[in-house]
Amino acid sequence: MKAAAPPVGELPGCPPGTLFEGRRALSEAGVHRPLQAGIAGTALGGAVSVVLSGGYEDDQDSGHQILYTGEGGRDPRTGAQTAHQLLTRGNLALARSHLLGQPVRVVRRVAGATYRYDGLFLVTACWHEVGRSGYRIWRFLLESEAALESEGTTAATAAPERHATTRLRRLSRHGAQVKAWHDHTCQLCGLRLLTPAGPYAEAAHIRPLGQPHGGPDTPENLLCLCPNCHVQFDLGGVGVAPDLTLLGRPGALRQARAHHVDPAQLAYHRTHIYSEEPGPMA
Amino acid sequence: MKAAAPPVGELPGCPPGTLFEGRRALSEAGVHRPLQAGIAGTALGGAVSVVLSGGYEDDQDSGHQILYTGEGGRDPRTGAQTAHQLLTRGNLALARSHLLGQPVRVVRRVAGATYRYDGLFLVTACWHEVGRSGYRIWRFLLESEAALESEGTTAATAAPERHATTRLRRLSRHGAQVKAWHDHTCQLCGLRLLTPAGPYAEAAHIRPLGQPHGGPDTPENLLCLCPNCHVQFDLGGVGVAPDLTLLGRPGALRQARAHHVDPAQLAYHRTHIYSEEPGPMA
């Protein structure tokens, strides 16, 4: 990865479908600079491009959706996973793209040394799991921006002013109930965020809804959080231990008598979302 | 307004287009309970319904979009505006609906004493201005949920799991630049929110984009904020004085050498968004 931030997004004169003979041609066109690495980008600027070469048996590619396995922890001679993958280098760059909502160029090897630029994808999920080898691997769900737009789930250029809908999207059917139980007080930090229109909190799913996580929209799978803790919880900066003390910072989960939080969902969050590695850019 | 939270959203057996003879029929059906007030709801639960009777000369109704004037400050005999409207009662309920992204039933008087339920609307903007009388009036932009959905700008029921897109929507073309200038440090509170994927901040428009405010998407109209301060700034809980001290809390706007913040946009925010009235539910 380079130190200077490489360009993000579509490159002029290089529409989806453009073919390249060999990694050097791909690099010289600026579509994917590194000659060997599968992920290009920087820790702070995020990933700008990935190449799918069919190298990782755990990858799954269904066209508009790609389940992409992180890098690292493999024996360079045998390719066997012999250590944990860390949230560093390319994995960190993809996690950063997820955090920033920033698109990544996807390149596929289509035959021999022929590569095709296939358009912009968003990192719509970022988590970790224990692979077949017994070591931790990082996983990224990449979804085609064109496909998301035709579904109506993104509108990056159209009507960016519709901030009201960003809040609407986060509404759980049970959000108002859970927030009322906690009097809009954050269960992680204790803040009750006041605005002239009253206290504001967000209902955060512990095990995320929808694929790949498949969490339920139930009160037991929700926490009442302030927006700052919501970002940190979703990105794995804080977790909750079985005894309800917090992981990654001091304190304990604040409880309300009426609100039962499902320990199984907290365990899922610890196993797949919470990252015990310290942030690399403290 | 009632103390118990009245039901939000569409009522069973009452689709858009349903007609009612007189305010009492409207009240008994539960569509709009109060017999006189134009806004029904509670301070904490938000507004549940409004009635448009053509009473306020400042209202504008173009079908799917309604510019709705708040209540209060009028002489009950003459109807003349003789005092400021406050962020209390019905006005506070509508501001709360805006904050919560919660729909409001809209009823229009169509002829004489005949009222028609016209469906659910979202409060997509909430601000104040000095009316023709010289007194402050509150304004609310109500937009038909059906029209917003057909535009593709809401997806409350479809794919609520797409959290990545909520961040994407907030991206300004200049957001990355402004955040880099401030090293992702909040200009209001000084927090640099850390996650395992690096520091996280949001680019907040000072004068909001799009109608009714028409702010530009320029670096001079952006602040680098943490999510909590972003909510408070957008909802008017904090403002910035001409000397760059903060209004509504101690401190001053943090500046970066490269980032020029336009004083005219800060003045617009003070005049139309920032609310110097203390929050009623501290």
Search tags:
homodimer, 282 residues, alpha+beta, PUA domain-like, 2 domains, eight-stranded mixed beta sheet, two-stranded antiparallel ribbon, 7 helices, elongated
Query: What profile does the largest beta sheet of chain A have?
Result: 8 strands, mixed
Mean pLDDT of chain A: 86
* Helical percentage of chain A: 10-25%
The CATH superfamily of the largest domain in chain A is: SRA-YDG
Structural domain tally of chain A: 2
Topology:
Two copies of one chain form a homodimer.
Chain A: E1 19-21, H1 22-28, E2 39-42, E3 46-52, E4 60-61, E5 65-69, H2 89-100, E6 104-111, E7 114-130, E8 136-144, H3 145-151, H4 163-170, H5 175-181, E9 193-195, E10 198-200, E11 202-205, E12 222-225, H6 227-234, E13 239-240, E14 246-247, H7 263-272
Parallel strand pairs in A: 3-6
Antiparallel strand pairs in A: 1-7, 2-3, 4-5, 5-8, 6-7, 7-8, 9-10, 11-12, 13-14
Brief rundown of the structure:
The structure is a homodimer of 282-residue chains. With 282 residues, the first copy, chain A, is an alpha+beta fold. Chain A has helices at 22-28, 89-100, 145-151, 163-170, 175-181, 227-234, 263-272; strands at 19-21, 39-42, 46-52, 60-61, 65-69, 104-111, 114-130, 136-144, 193-195, 198-200, 202-205, 222-225, 239-240, 246-247.
